[in-house]
Design goal:
The protein is α/β, with parallel strands linked by helices. It is 39% helix and 17% strand. Strand 1 (40-45) and strand 2 (48-54) form a beta hairpin.
Length: 171
Amino acid sequence: MLNIFEKRFPSELNRNDEYYMSHAYNQALIAWEKDEVPIGAVVVQAGQIIASAHNQTRRTLDPTAHAEILAISQAAKYIGDWRLNECKLYVTKEPCPMCSGALVVSRIQGVYFGLNDPKMGCLGGAIDLSNLPSSNHKFKVKGGILKKETHALLNAFFEKKRAEKKEKEAH
C-alpha cells in the first residue's frame, strides 16, 4: 500500500485552526515517508509558525522523540525561554501522558489537535492533564480539527504495518 495522502496547501490569507493543523498534517506525512508513526506538530506564536516536527522515535531509537516534544524544544530555543505561554501547539493526534506533561510544564497557551485518543490521550481522552486541580497553569484545549484526515492517515499507516507483518510471517 502506497502513501496515497497528499500535502495540504492552505491559503496564507486565512490563518485559522485548519491552516495551522494543515501544516501539522504535512509534518505527519513526512513522518510516514520516514516510516514513523504519522504524527506532526507545529508551534505558533503571534500567528507565525516558529517550530515544526514529526515523530522520530523509530529513526532515533528515542521514546521521547514525539512530534510534540521536538516542536516544544524547537520553540523554546527559538524564543529563548522555556515558558511558551504566548504559544499554541497544533498536533494531529491528542497528546500522550509524556507530551501532555511537557505541555503543562512549558506553560503552553493552548493545544489544538486532530484525532482524540480515548486510550492514551491526556487532554480529555483518557484523562485531562490540562486541568489539574492543583496546577497553577491551565491551557485551552480544542480537538477535532481535521479529524477525518488525521484519522484516515493513522488508520492507513497501521493497516500498512499489519499487512507488512502478515506478509513477513507468511514467508
